[in-house]
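ingest -> validate -> predict -> emit
validate: passed (alphabet ok, no gaps, 250 aa)
predict: started
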Amino acid sequence: MRSERNRTPLSARWQRLLPVLILLWLLAGCSGRLDNDSIINTRNPVQAGELLQTDVDRMATLAMRNNLNSLYRLMHKLYQRNPREWRKNAQIDSVGIERQIQYAIEHNQDWPTLGGRRDVAALDYALSPAFHGDRVAAFTYAIGSMLVTAHGGHTEFYLTDSFNAQFIYNAARNLEKAAWMLGQRRDASGQPLLLSNEVSERTSNLSYAVEFGKMVARLDLLTHVLEERYRRMGANYAQSLFLLNFLPVQ
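emit:
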């Protein structure tokens, strides 16, 4: 038989654990946003905040980080093929403007030349004849803001966060459309608004399509995982009723 000393009331135990949980929450910096170093560097030591993440939360965080990495690589490659775009910002190179775009995406800020537009509205405007600013910046920002919006406005995910699998699925389909728009949109003279993939007798460059494909695949995988998680929750509950198993209490 347990001694009376070991029979600590549940409320008293929670009172002792509460300061520890608060400390872990503060250490996690649960702002729901990855800092730039976490996005650029894929190998980081285990953080205290990971204790507040389920497997799905961690997977979603890593998928977001890798998708932003792919987006930033795509942006850099677009600037290499379209240097006239970064020159519209009076920069000596593309590095400075790339950092500004990353900061705006990761900190939920508007992009000046888009007139307050974000996600799908910004995406359509960035590749329209009506837009005359830096198309690479606008296009990249539009995709980044769409990804963040589809994930509930977060780039890091914890126990208190929830996902809408339909929105993430929609984001994957929007990326497919964005890739198509990038290759098909032309100006009044019939020239591509932005140079990207190239297939000719002399060269073949499909690296832009590859980055889009990676992002779409990650989003689709996360969608399937989320759907399976909710399905299994129902199945596990039904099994417990069918087997008449009591749930453990200690």
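The first helix runs from residue 10 to 28.
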